[in-house]
Write a structure and sequence with these properties.
Layout: H1 4-30, H2 35-54, H3 58-75, H4 83-101, H5 107-134, H6 172-176
């Protein structure tokens, strides 16, 4: 059973992680290709999201998940670090804190939507640029079109949660998403 002491411990840990996130983002501004900093940003977001979900901060966890996904794309080289991405992530960090402090504040959801729209626009812009590069063999991406190798893959994942999954505070819906 989750107690107030556990929630308070989560909040303290989350605020420390958000402070680390801010420091890593500010350093990343100066060194946008630093994979260690990119990993640090991703891990901070991932931990805040996962812990928040366990303690019922569902709106914050869903919001953080999208930002975490963007930094997963950065880690995988699908999305470059840009000043705009860093700026939006710093704003998101402030919003995550506010969502932890006031989880039932409805105005935060509209702020979250606006930030997520900005981050998704950056991600879509990067995907559009990658598509353009893929169509130009001189860009070093190889041939595109019907003769290009098939890179789409389908995976089957079997998920069998423990019978006591809810007792640990895990939300299987967020895991599946």
């Amino acid at each position: 059973m989750t107690t107030d002491i556990h929630v308070q411990a989560f909040i303290e840990e989350a605020f420390e992680l958000l402070s680390n996130l801010e420091n890593a983002l500010l350093e990343l501004e100066e060194d946008p290709d630093n994979s260690e900093l990119i990993g640090q940003v991703f891990r901070s977001l991932h931990t805040v999201k996962g812990s928040g979900s366990m303690f019922g901060f569902d709106n914050m966890a869903k919001f953080t998940h999208t930002i975490e996904t963007a930094f997963d794309d950065v880690r995988e080289g699908r999305l470059p670090v840009s000043q705009e991405l860093i700026s939006l992530t710093l704003k998101a960090k402030d919003l995550i804190r506010a969502m932890i402090e006031s989880p039932d504040e409805p105005s935060l959801l509209s702020d979250a939507k606006a930030l997520l729209d900005g981050i998704e626009a950056i991600a879509q812009g990067a995907k559009g640029a990658a598509t353009i590069d893929a169509e130009r063999p001189e860009a070093g991406k190889g041939p595109a079109g019907p003769d290009a190798p098939d890179t789409d893959r389908t995976y089957r994942i079997r998920f069998r949660p423990s019978r006591v999954i809810f007792l640990t505070g895990t939300n299987p819906i967020l895991l599946l998403n």
